[in-house]
Amino acid sequence: MKTRIILLIFSFCSFMQTHAQCAMCRAVLENEDGQTTAQGINDGIVYLMAVPYILVAGLGYFIYRKYNMLKK
Predict the structure, then answer these.
(1) Other CB atoms within 10 A of residue 2 CB
(2) What residue ranges do the domains of the chain occupy?
(3) What pTM does this model have?
(4) Over the stretch 17-69, which tens digit does the pLDDT of each residue have?
(5) Rounded to whole angstroms, how far apart are CA atoms 54 and 66?
(6) Which of 29, 33, 53, 62 is most enclosed, with most CB atoms within 10 A?
(7) If DSSP states are collapsed to H, E and C, what string results for the chain?
């Protein structure tokens, strides 16, 4: 039950919109008239940030599952 609650909270938090940008990118892109490039860079940064977390979470899940199978 506790695991399901944590999973539910995580799934709700993953839908929140995030804005990630380094200081140099922000300074260059603030001067641009059209913000399409800035939005594209933000999306790319979030994508690159999310992939390692997903891989580590998947690896942790498989290790957890393997550990529990050995206990039984």
Answers:
(1) 6
(2) 20-71
(3) 0.47
(4) 556 556 666 666 677 666 777 777 778 888 888 888 999 999 999 999 988 88
(5) 18
(6) 29
(7) CHHHHHHHHHHHHCCCCCCCCCHHHHHHHHCCCCCHHHHHHHHHHHHHHHHHHHHHHHHHHHHHHHHHHHHC
Of 38, 42, 40, 39, the closest CA to residue 30 belongs to 38
Looking up tokens 């059209």, which residue turns up? 34
Token pair recorded at residue 67: 């550990």
* C-alpha distances in Å from residue 19, one per residue of 37, 38, 55: 14, 10, 21
Q: Hey, what amino acid is at 8?
A: L
Query: Does residue 19 contact residue 42 with C-beta atoms inside 8 Å?
Result: yes
